[in-house]
Specification:
Length: 208
């Protein structure tokens, strides 16, 4: 029975820091070097120009591996990053537009939607109606909501189609993972292009 003080689970024990008197030692390629006394295991690691790293404190006897400490910490960080990515929780974000929302404000809201979609979230888009706007033609109101969706320059698909809601009309969109996300430069260029088209349209209306 190995009566060793409890290891700190957040600490990486290497070489003389390891408390167990005996260890099952794995070589750099994963080969089993057998059960060695700690001092012999540390000496073996140093002879190879590497470190002895405790990888399983709860095993009997504890397991240590001979390897490069820098490589070990890199692999640990990589695993932690993968775990964090896999544990990502998708949220449903919300953005609200109105009939009278200006093009500049729509673009700002659309940019916010872009960031949420890139992060992997769903986005619920609400067309908020009040007063007389509640009684306008359904087709017109749905077109207003569709117009906002049209200015979002990243691939998305409709998770919940446009329908009546307590606030007016709403729909939920999510990123289309089957299509690549444009670069930041392309996204910004798309917004600038749409903004230029709006200005040209206003100029034409003014001349008319």
């Amino acid at each position: 029975m190995y009566n060793v003080r409890k290891e700190d689970p957040n600490k990486v024990y290497i070489n003389e820091e390891i408390r167990a008197p005996e260890l099952r030692v794995m070589g750099p390629e994963g080969e089993n070097l057998g059960v060695l006394e700690k001092r012999d295991a540390v000496a073996e690691a140093r002879e190879r120009g590497l470190d002895l790293i405790l990888v399983s404190a709860k095993a009997v006897p504890p397991v240590a591996k001979i390897m490069d400490y820098g490589k070990f910490t890199y692999e640990q960080k990589k695993k932690a990053k993968e775990v964090k990515a896999n544990s990502f929780i998708t949220e449903t974000k919300n953005v609200q537009v109105k009939i009278g929302t200006g093009e500049h404000d729509k673009a700002l809201k659309a940019k916010r939607v872009v960031e949420w979609l890139k992060e992997g979230h769903r986005v619920k888009v609400d067309l908020f109606l009040w007063g007389r706007y509640k009684y306008m033609e359904k087709e017109f109101l749905m077109e207003r909501l569709e117009h906002f969706l049209d200015i979002i320059p990243v691939p998305f698909k409709v998770a919940d189609s446009i329908k009546k809601s307590p606030k007016g009309f709403s729909c939920t969109i999510e990123r289309d993972k089957n299509k690549p996300i444009p670069s930041d430069e392309d996204i910004e260029r798309a917004f600038q292009t749409k903004d230029q088209k709006v200005k040209e349209k206003k100029d034409e209306e003014t001349k008319a």
